[in-house]
Amino acid sequence: MTQTSPHENPKIAFSPPGQPVMGRLNRLGLWTLYMKEVRRFFKVQLQTIWAPAITTLLFLVIFTIAMGRGDREILGVNFATFVAPGLIVMGMMQNAFANASFSLLGGKIQGTIIDYLMPPLSNFEMLVGLVGAAMTRAILVGLAVGLAMMLYPGVDLSMAHPWAVVWFGLMGAMMLSFLGVLTSIWAEKFDHNAAVTNFVVAPLALLSGTFYVIDNLAPFFQSVSRLNPFFYVISGFRFGFLGQSDIGDTNMAVLHGALGLGVLNVVLGLFTYFVLRSGWKLRS
C-alpha cells in the first residue's frame, strides 16, 4: 500500500458540482460578451468600419472643395489638414454610439434580451463589455478614416501631442458609448434610436467646431459652443495633431478640457450603471 507523505495533503478541495468557479470578476463571461459584440459588428465590417471611412472622406472632399480654395489656412495649416482630425474623431464618436445603442435594443426587439440578462454577469461587467466593444469599433473606424485621409492630397496627420490624440479620442468614444447604452435601454423601437441620432448626436457633432474655429462666431454662440462637450473632444483631438486649439490660448486650457471630459465620463458612467442596475425597461 502506498503511504502518503506527511508533507503532502491527501485532501484536494473541489467545488461542489454545479457551483460556478469565479472570482469577484467574471473574466470569462466579460470576455465572452465583449467578443460577441465585437464579432457582431466585425461580421459586417464593410458596413460598420469601411463605409464610415469612405463617408467621412467624402465629407473632407466636399468641404475642402467648397471652403478650402485659395490656399485658405486655419490655425496655421491648410483647410484639409485642419478639418481632417475633427472628421476622424467625429466618425469615431458616431460609430461608438451606433454600436452601443443597438445591443440591448436589438435584444428587446428580437426577443433575445434574455441572452444579456441571464448569464452570470454583474451589471458592471455587462456595462464594461458593451462599452468596450463600442470603443473598439470606434478605434477601428478612426484608424480606417485616418488611413483614408492620409491618401488625400494636402492632408498632414503628423502628431504634435500624441497623448492628446489618445486621450480625447478615447474620452469621446467612451462618452458616446455610455450615451448609446442609455439610448439602448430607453428605446423601444429603432425609431427612438434614430431620433436620438438625428436630433441629439448629429447636431452636437456638426455644431462642435469640426469645420470652423469658434473664434469666428459671435460671443453668444461661442458661449453656447463651449457648453457642447463634443467641442472639447474635437478641439482637443485636433490639438494633438496641430499643437493648436480654440479651447483656449494656453496648453493649460486644453488640459482643463481633458480633465473635464474625464469627470463627465465618470458621472455619465455612474448614471448609466445605476440605470442598468435598476432594470428599467429591461426587466419589466
From TrEMBL:
<protein>
    <recommendedName>
        <fullName>Transport permease protein</fullName>
    </recommendedName>
</protein>
<dbReference type="InterPro" id="IPR052522">
    <property type="entry name" value="ABC-2_transport_permease"/>
</dbReference>
<feature type="transmembrane region" description="Helical">
    <location>
        <begin position="253"/>
        <end position="276"/>
    </location>
</feature>
<keyword id="KW-1133">Transmembrane helix</keyword>
<keyword id="KW-0472">Membrane</keyword>
<feature type="transmembrane region" description="Helical">
    <location>
        <begin position="126"/>
        <end position="152"/>
    </location>
</feature>
<feature type="transmembrane region" description="Helical">
    <location>
        <begin position="199"/>
        <end position="218"/>
    </location>
</feature>
<keyword id="KW-0812">Transmembrane</keyword>
<feature type="domain" description="ABC transmembrane type-2">
    <location>
        <begin position="43"/>
        <end position="279"/>
    </location>
</feature>
<dbReference type="InterPro" id="IPR013525">
    <property type="entry name" value="ABC2_TM"/>
</dbReference>
<feature type="transmembrane region" description="Helical">
    <location>
        <begin position="164"/>
        <end position="187"/>
    </location>
</feature>
<dbReference type="GO" id="GO:0043190">
    <property type="term" value="C:ATP-binding cassette (ABC) transporter complex"/>
</dbReference>
<comment type="similarity">
    <text>Belongs to the ABC-2 integral membrane protein family.</text>
</comment>
<dbReference type="GO" id="GO:0140359">
    <property type="term" value="F:ABC-type transporter activity"/>
</dbReference>
<dbReference type="InterPro" id="IPR000412">
    <property type="entry name" value="ABC_2_transport"/>
</dbReference>
<feature type="transmembrane region" description="Helical">
    <location>
        <begin position="49"/>
        <end position="67"/>
    </location>
</feature>
<dbReference type="Pfam" id="PF01061">
    <property type="entry name" value="ABC2_membrane"/>
</dbReference>
<dbReference type="InterPro" id="IPR047817">
    <property type="entry name" value="ABC2_TM_bact-type"/>
</dbReference>
<keyword id="KW-0813">Transport</keyword>
<keyword id="KW-1003">Cell membrane</keyword>
